Amino acid sequence: xxxxxxxxxxxxxxxxxxxxxxxxxxxxxxxxxxxxxxxxxxxxxxxxxxxxxxxxxxxxxxxxxxxxxxxxxxxxxxxxxxxxxxxxxxxxxxxxxxxxxxxxxxxxxxxxxxxxxxxxxxxxxxxxxxxxxxxxxxxxxxxxxxxxxxxxxxxxxxxxxxxxxxxxxxxxxxxxxxxx
Length: 180
Prior knowledge:
The protein has 180 residues and is mainly beta. It has one domain (39-173). The chain contains one helix and 14 strands, in the order αββββββββββββββ. Strands 3, 5, 6, 7, 8, 11, 12 and 13 form an eight-stranded antiparallel sheet that branches. Strands 1-14 form a two-stranded antiparallel sheet. It has a two-stranded antiparallel ribbon with strand order 2-4. Residues 1-16 form the signal peptide.
């Protein structure tokens, strides 16, 4: 009577098994354990609420990302440098030094060399970045754009946000494991 009903029920059952399998795999993944004198850094605004600072692939030089907690990096600010403790070496967040100082987004990435442009600091638990040749209204303003990449926001937080970007602030978190 309903020739496609059996097919539809099989498709729904297969889809449910896939979702169940994915959830089970994610739930059983080991989360990083925070080492003494280090912090997780995470966003606190939607749509990146409790997304964690890291590189992809994890613990390698490359663009700074905000992503899921399973590969959260461990960080601290030492002598104005945002330092990523990978377990084998330390990486430093670097910031683009643009020719056009009115540019709204500055790229960030992690590298084995120290950052030569600007200074990082904690303001409470917020992560800030300052530099002498750019007057920022909010030194704790960041963007997440495109493929979850982290940028410095040189303009006002929540005003004239570029297409494809989201305003964020990022904060240190000292819990033993990164929560969702």
